[in-house]
């Protein structure tokens, strides 16, 4: 299995003026993004690692990577105006290697999810290699959303992984059609509906840092893990 | 990162949209976040923060030699120059963190 890991961190931190993109915030002594990146690549010693950032953060990225992730070889790619565009840029960067058969699984992870364990990344990559695609999902009690519903509802997380060639073709087709997906799986579903995407059990602790409370929860989780992963 | 104040966009539960928040850190720990629009604040519970800080301090002390070595290995010259200054500033830095944690009640 030849894996490429793509970590998305291109969100803007300056929509309201001078502020930091949340992925660069400290979390128990290290930046959120460096934790996300380190966990993502831990299980894949020979992976290609792509970090998609806002070009205005390039100086900060170099500083943080040299301090906190100096042992990881990272290729930096400029992000776009949307998540979809950032994924597209990363895939175009990897396209020559994908076409040459040097990468057969691409895994895309949100930089604001610093608590996904290396085991989850490995499970997702293996399932994608075997079945075509894999996403982590947590079953939600449907009554939390609609009391009358008895359908099974899942909360989807990242990392999401797919066979590299299919994913590249999907994003190329999306570019031609002007399709913009909400996440990686949405684009694959649009262009390769027959690809079997497996739902792998997600992790409750794999929160996306969104609310201020998430930072407090993340600190507690890291403390419980002895600040590892 | 001692008693540092940062600003970042986070989703405010009160405003129900992304707003700029001020984040206050003591050492490696987050002390509080405040929404700059509605002033709603999220804090660690005081007793919890003290325990959390002690555990974190223990971890920082235990891992310091390893972190120092790594820094020396990467940049021996600049590390050697900055070490005495950093060493001298540690008591004041930790005292300031403790004051910030105790003073938030």
TrEMBL record, chain A:
<protein>
    <submittedName>
        <fullName>Unannotated protein</fullName>
    </submittedName>
</protein>
<dbReference type="InterPro" id="IPR029044">
    <property type="entry name" value="Nucleotide-diphossugar_trans"/>
</dbReference>
<dbReference type="InterPro" id="IPR034683">
    <property type="entry name" value="IspD/TarI"/>
</dbReference>
<keyword id="KW-0808">Transferase</keyword>
<dbReference type="GO" id="GO:0008299">
    <property type="term" value="P:isoprenoid biosynthetic process"/>
</dbReference>
<keyword id="KW-0548">Nucleotidyltransferase</keyword>
<dbReference type="Pfam" id="PF01128">
    <property type="entry name" value="IspD"/>
</dbReference>
<dbReference type="InterPro" id="IPR050088">
    <property type="entry name" value="IspD/TarI_cytidylyltransf_bact"/>
</dbReference>
<dbReference type="GO" id="GO:0050518">
    <property type="term" value="F:2-C-methyl-D-erythritol 4-phosphate cytidylyltransferase activity"/>
</dbReference>
<dbReference type="InterPro" id="IPR018294">
    <property type="entry name" value="ISPD_synthase_CS"/>
</dbReference>
From TrEMBL, chain B:
<protein>
    <submittedName>
        <fullName>Unannotated protein</fullName>
    </submittedName>
</protein>
């Amino acid at each position: 299995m030849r894996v490429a890991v793509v970590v998305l961190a291109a969100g803007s931190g300056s929509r309201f003026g001078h502020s930091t993109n949340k992925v660069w915030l400290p979390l128990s002594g290290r930046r959120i993004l460096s934790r996300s990146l380190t966990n993502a690549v831990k299980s894949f010693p020979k992976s290609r690692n792509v970090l998609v950032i806002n070009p205005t953060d390039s100086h900060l990225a170099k500083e943080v990577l040299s301090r906190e992730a100096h042992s990881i070889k990272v290729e930096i790619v400029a992000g776009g105006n949307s998540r979809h565009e950032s994924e597209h840029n990363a895939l175009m960067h990897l396209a020559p290697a994908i076409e040459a058969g040097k990468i057969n699984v691409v895994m895309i992870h949100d930089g604001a999810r610093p608590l996904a364990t290396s085991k989850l990344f490995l499970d997702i990559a293996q399932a994608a290699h075997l079945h075509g695609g894999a996403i982590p999902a947590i079953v939600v009690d449907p009554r939390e959303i609609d009391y009358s519903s008895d359908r099974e509802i899942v909360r989807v997380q990242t990392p999401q992984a797919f066979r590299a060639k299919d994913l590249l073709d999907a994003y190329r087709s999306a570019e031609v059609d002007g399709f913009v997906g909400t996440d990686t799986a949405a684009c694959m579903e649009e262009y390769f509906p027959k690809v079997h995407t497996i739902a792998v059990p997600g992790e409750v602790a794999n929160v996306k840092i969104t609310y201020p409370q998430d930072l407090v929860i993340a600190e507690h989780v890291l403390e419980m893990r002895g600040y590892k992963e | 990162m001692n008693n540092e104040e940062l600003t970042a966009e986070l989703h405010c539960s009160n405003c129900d949209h992304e707003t700029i928040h001020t984040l206050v850190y003591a050492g490696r720990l987050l002390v509080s976040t405040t929404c700059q629009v509605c002033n709603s604040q999220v804090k660690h519970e005081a007793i919890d923060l003290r325990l959390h800080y002690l555990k974190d301090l223990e971890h920082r002390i235990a891992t310091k030699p390893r972190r120092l070595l790594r820094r020396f290995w990467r940049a021996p010259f600049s590390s050697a120059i900055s070490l005495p200054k950093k060493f001298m500033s540690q008591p004041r830095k930790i005292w300031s963190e403790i004051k910030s944690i105790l003073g938030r009640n």
